[in-house]
Automatic annotation (TrEMBL):
It comes from the Bacteria. CDD domains: HNHc (cd00085). Pfam families: HNH_2 (PF13391). This is HNH nuclease domain-containing protein. Residues 423-480 form the HNH nuclease domain. It comes from Paenibacillus athensensis.
Length: 531
């Protein structure tokens, strides 16, 4: 027995030396509250009677006498049922201690007369019960001696119903202290149903403005059904509950955006979001919706934005272009197709600085290969990559829908051939799941768009996303995995010398096979286009 139980047993022995506990709440209400609080905190599943008996006492339960229920207050009960949505015949039956059928029968016997259960002024016991119910967020409170209290509200105001072994009392009027206590938790005007509806929304920040966002679609549908049945407008009802303004449940909050951008903060504390990544596109769209720049919104979120030094950037990009071109070279030669992204970006970069690609290559000691030389030198993989580049030479908005569908099918076929139907995440050695061989001798695999096509808003966006550089060859398991695991993976980054997928929560998933994506080239190309 712990020290608290020892103190409680000693007090019970003093109050009931015959070891028979009878009417504890009436004999010492404050002591009863102490026991109630102790049980709630330390033994929430144990009832008062069970606990008292465990201390070596007998416990006498009392029931309401016939005099409590015989004189029915028809007028008050009718008023409660008509004006308080939490109160119906079942609740009245629970309060009085009789069956619902008996309540229905009594209500049909007469509409007036009977005893008046309305009371003026709270007893000390009732005042304490109200405090407990507000603190514990209770609407129905049952306690010893078969007693019960109900506390709810409506636009008519609050009501407190109390039954113990002595009487039934209805309270519609309260003193200033109790009214203030009720108002502090909005218990003076909202029912339990109203409070449940309020809890169906969470308060969130969007561009430093507070909004209410539904926690689930089901809860919103339930509230709409509730409003429809009562002939009230959904928006007006929520505004009465203090739920205003409202945003769609799919809208990302400031906290959501902070977590999404956090992986792009460098060791120097500066935020650098890759150009044309889904994160950068979404950030720009969010900022535009509220009439600000991406930098302004990022700084609202608390990030340090990069400040561009164009002279330094020019030199850095020039050096990086040299490194990238040399990485693509072989024995002093390099293949740069004129319709490729790297060629176009390098061409525009050099043109603004009065230099040609030819002089640039000569300066770094390289000679440009033609297509046939490239194919003969790099074999089948090179030929497939060349076909992929040729396939993307026509813009999406320059071809018809049928041609676009046909082109997409060709891209899928070429990517699968490029990787010999292997998953880029599994790799070729001991894949996570066995490969599925088809009747034609090839293996089953799927092509996945890293940034979903559904996020495109313009024809230019479609052109960028429906591209082999935004596609991966994956097994069915990893295709589902990158779509749904922990929110999905929607970006490609480089981690050291490894190309990885990046999840919305910042987790990295390496690509063990990669023949067609050079992230360094893509990032350099995209960032140089800004200059």
């Amino acid at each position: 027995m712990d020290s608290d139980s020892q103190i409680i047993r000693d007090r019970l022995t003093y109050l009931y030396p015959n070891k028979i506990v009878d009417g504890l709440s009436g004999k010492d209400r404050s002591f009863y509250s102490v026991i109630y609080g102790y049980l709630k905190e330390n033994h929430p599943g144990v009832g008062l009677e069970e606990y008292v008996r465990s201390l070596g006492f007998d416990y006498i339960r009392r029931s309401a006498g016939n005099n409590v229920v015989n004189d029915f207050d028809f007028a008050s009960v009718h008023y409660l049922i008509e004006n308080f949505e939490d109160i119906n015949q079942t609740v009245i039956a629970q309060l009085i201690g009789i069956s619902r059928q008996r309540v229905s029968q009594r209500l049909h016997e007469a509409t007036q007369g009977g005893r008046d259960w309305r009371a003026s002024g709270l007893t000390d016991e009732e005042r304490l019960i109200i405090q407990i119910m507000i603190e514990e967020d209770l609407y129905v409170f049952e306690y010893d001696d078969n007693s019960i209290a109900i506390l709810t509200a409506s636009p008519k105001g609050p009501v407190f119903l109390h039954r113990n072994v002595e009487s039934i009392r209805f309270h519609f009027d309260f003193d200033h202290e109790i009214l203030q206590l009720l108002a502090s938790k909005d218990r003076n005007r909202f029912s339990e149903v109203n409070h449940d509806h309020r809890r169906a929304f969470e308060q969130v920040s969007v561009v430093n403005q507070l909004y209410f966002r539904p926690t689930s679609n089901d809860s919103t549908l339930n509230i709409r059904y509730y409003c429809y049945n009562r002939g009230i407008e959904f928006e007006e009802y929520l505004e009465e509950l203090g739920i205003h303004p409202i945003i769609d449940g799919r809208v990302l909050t400031d906290e959501d955006w902070f977590n999404r951008l956090l992986p792009y903060v460098g060791s120097d504390g500066v935020l650098r979001v890759p150009h044309r990544s889904s994160a950068q596109t979404g950030l720009a769209r969010r900022a535009r919706e509220f009439g600000m720049s991406a930098q302004e919104y990022a700084e609202i979120l608390g990030f340090q934005w990069r400040h561009r030094d164009f002279a330094s950037e020019h030199q850095r990009h020039l050096v990086r272009y040299e490194e990238l071109i040399k990485e693509q070279s072989f024995d002093g030669f390099v293949y740069l197709p004129s319709d490729g992204g790297l060629y176009r970006a390098l061409y525009h970069f050099l043109r603004g600085r009065y230099e040609t690609i030819q002089t640039f290559l000569e300066r770094i000691g390289l000679e440009r290969l033609n297509k046939e030389e490239y194919r003969s030198r790099f074999g089948i993989a090179g030929a497939i990559l060349e076909k992929l580049k040729e396939l993307q030479s026509d813009s999406q908005y320059e071809i018809g829908s049928d041609e676009r569908i046909a082109r997409n099918k060709k891209m899928v076929t070429l990517l699968k051939k490029l990787y010999d139907y292997h998953c880029q995440i599994c790799g070729t050695d001991l894949p996570l799941i066995p490969r599925i061989e088809k009747d034609d001798g090839t293996y089953y695999c799927e092509v996945h768009h890293v940034t979903p096509l559904g996020t495109a808003e313009t024809a230019a966006d479609v052109e960028t996303l429906d591209h082999y550089l935004n596609a991966l060859c994956l097994c069915s398991y990893h295709h589902s995995y990158v779509h749904y695991y922990k929110g999905g993976y929607s970006d490609i980054i480089i981690d050291g010398d490894q190309i990885c997928l990046l999840s919305v929560h910042g987790e990295k998933l390496p690509l063990l096979l990669n023949k067609h994506i050079n992230l360094e080239i893509r990032e350099c190309v995209e960032s140089c286009e800004e200059i």
